[in-house]
């Protein structure tokens, strides 16, 4: 074909998606699949959300509110922060794209961890920028090396906290020091998609830094603990001047009406969020400890998933039994994978499968 795409697209591959539930059922002849591969909320969503969607469905012939007024008002009230600091998006990934579209020029650089959410790198490359990746240490961001990688070409740094896919966080004082030493003309993108799951005293509340550091952009989402992954609603919290620039490059009507109604209802039900967080913490401790007994270790997680690794074969056996996880190679280990935390019953089932596998190999 003689029609050539932009040179920046060479070498970029689409985001990798795993097999569907139906494909797994057909391939292995099973009827039940536990999808623990995409960090979704296994406890579903608030009943208030379903009611709100039903009411909003009466107005499907109208365009949605292009300024997402209802969500912005509710976020402002929830965080006790002026509305001018919020921008609502089609998933928090859209804000990543808007940031690179608005601020990355050709040959600009963006610093990020080597093992983190891959869409940072993709969006930087699409705009003609250069992604500078810094190796991690024990599954954590190496903020010292990331600081050293910043130069006169650097436009932004990405810190995913808790990090996807490792689930780890960076220590509070370490992150405070890093933020203080990033030049004010470099954007600090704090991706906090999983922050509602973090319960460590070492987790830094970056919201408190917005007045002091005008170059911070905080990304959060309704896809995870709120259980709205299929509706795609995210939001950014930032200085009003940054929000003004992003509004220039965002799509019109970027968040559909049903999604807007669902997000407002979800924010109202904080009891649901707290319940999910408590269950997640208990199951995180339980599963990580039990897997460790079976020689499957994991990085210390503050999210709703574990990054697990072992020198024993596990992934194929889980898949054959209808447990979907995301395979993610890790040097030095035979198998490594990210597994979304499920219900207690899910975890008992998983542990039974793994125990049987190890028993069979020992016989």
From TrEMBL:
Reaction(s) this enzyme catalyzes, per UniProt: L-histidinol phosphate + 2-oxoglutarate = 3-(imidazol-4-yl)-2-oxopropyl phosphate + L-glutamate
Keyword terms, alphabetized: Amino-acid biosynthesis, Aminotransferase, Histidine biosynthesis, Pyridoxal phosphate, Transferase
Origin: domain of life: Bacteria
EC annotation from Swiss-Prot or TrEMBL: 2.6.1.9
GO biological-process terms attached to the record: L-histidine biosynthetic process
Record-level Gene Ontology MF annotations: histidinol-phosphate transaminase activity; pyridoxal phosphate binding
Cofactor: pyridoxal 5'-phosphate
Record-annotated Aminotransferase class I/classII large domain positions: 34-347
Pfam hit, one: Aminotran_1_2
Pathway: Amino-acid biosynthesis; L-histidine biosynthesis; L-histidine from 5-phospho-alpha-D-ribose 1-diphosphate: step 7/9
Subunit structure: Homodimer.
Name used for this protein in its record: Histidinol-phosphate aminotransferase
């Amino acid at each position: 074909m003689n029609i050539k795409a932009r040179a920046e697209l060479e070498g970029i591959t689409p985001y990798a998606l795993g097999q569907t539930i139906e494909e797994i059922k057909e391939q292995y002849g099973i009827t039940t699949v536990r999808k623990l591969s995409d960090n979704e909320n296994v406890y579903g969503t608030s009943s208030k959300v379903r009611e709100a969607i039903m009411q909003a469905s009466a107005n499907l012939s109208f365009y949605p509110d292009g300024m997402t007024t209802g969500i912005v008002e509710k976020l402002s009230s929830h965080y006790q922060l002026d509305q001018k600091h919020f921008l609502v998006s089609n998933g928090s990934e859209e804000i990543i794209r808007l940031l690179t579209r608005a601020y990355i020029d050709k040959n600009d650089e963006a610093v990020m961890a080597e093992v983190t959410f891959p869409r940072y790198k993709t969006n930087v490359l699409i705009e003609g920028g250069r992604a500078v990746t810094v190796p991690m240490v024990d599954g954590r961001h190496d903020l010292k090396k990331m600081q050293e990688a910043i130069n006169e070409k650097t436009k932004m740094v990405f810190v995913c906290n808790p990090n996807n896919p490792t689930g780890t966080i960076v220590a509070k004082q370490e992150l405070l020091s890093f933020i203080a030493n990033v030049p004010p003309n470099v954007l600090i993108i704090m991706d906090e998609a999983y922050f509602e799951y973090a319960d460590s005293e070492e987790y830094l509340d970056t919201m408190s830094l917005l007045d002091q550091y005008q170059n911070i952009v905080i990304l959060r989402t309704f896809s995870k603990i709120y259980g709205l992954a299929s509706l795609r609603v995210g939001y950014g919290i930032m200085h009003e001047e940054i929000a003004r620039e992003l509004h220039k490059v965002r799509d019109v009507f970027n968040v559909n009406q049903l999604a807007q109604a669902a997000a407002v209802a979800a924010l109202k039900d904080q009891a649901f969020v707290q319940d999910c967080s408590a269950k997640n913490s208990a199951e995180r401790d339980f599963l990580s400890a039990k897997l460790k007994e079976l020689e499957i270790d994991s990085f210390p997680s503050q999210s709703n998933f574990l990054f697990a690794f072992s020198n024993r074969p596990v992934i194929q056996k889980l898949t054959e039994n209808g447990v979907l996880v995301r395979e993610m190679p890790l040097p030095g280990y035979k198998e490594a994978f990210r597994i979304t935390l499920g219900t207690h019953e899910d975890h008992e089932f998983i542990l039974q499968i793994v125990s049987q596998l190890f028993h069979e190999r020992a016989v």
